[in-house]
Amino acid sequence: MENENEKSDQNLINVNDVEVIIKIKDEGKLKATAILRYKNINIKGFRIMDSEYDNVFGDKIWIQPPSYFAGRYQPMFFLEPKEEWKKMEEAIIIQFKKSQQEYYKKKFKVQDNSEEELEIENIKFNN
User: Fold this and answer.
1) Which candidate, 77, 88, 96, places its Cα nearest to that of 33?
2) Is the whole-model pTM more than 0.90?
3) Neighbours of 77 (CB within 10 A)
4) Torsion on CA atoms 81, 87, 93, 96, rounded to nearest 10
């Protein structure tokens, strides 16, 4: 008999079934916001932020789920088991990178004549 605390695979949401919608902000540490859409459920408030630490892809960004402040930030969204959140986090980062590429291609009017990726880290900005 299955333990109440154990989640069977058939009850887990498949990360591939979740649409990730990214809105690039590029406002200081806030790089973007994200909405997760699963069927008719939209979850807003995910923030893609600069980080001091590398994520699983070696980038210095992290995903902050929707939260509220009550002495310290309390998450309002989480997935169980924890490994499922890691999968979702990876999906958000992948979609963020794609959206960021498109954003900078449009912003700097880069012609899309090849499959070569725009190296955002190497762009010099004049402030």
Assistant:
1) 96
2) no
3) 14
4) -100
Rounded distance, CA 17 to CA 13, Å?
A: 7
Question: How far is it, in rounded angstroms, from Cα 111 to Cα 109?
Answer: 6
Strands of 19-27's sheet in order across: 19-27, 30-38, 41-50, 61-64
Q: How far is CA 84 from CA 16, 25, 81, 126, in A?
A: 12, 26, 6, 41
Q: Report the candidate in 71, 70, 68, 90 with the shortest Cα–Cα distance to residue 79.
A: 90
pLDDT tens figures, 72-123: 989 999 898 899 999 999 999 999 999 999 998 888 887 765 555 556 555 5
Q: What residues contact residue 40 under an 8 Å CB cut-off, 6+ apart?
A: none
Structure tokens at 34: 């994200």
Residue 12: other Cβ atoms inside 10 A: 14
- Ramachandran angles phi, psi of 119, nearest 5°: -85, 90
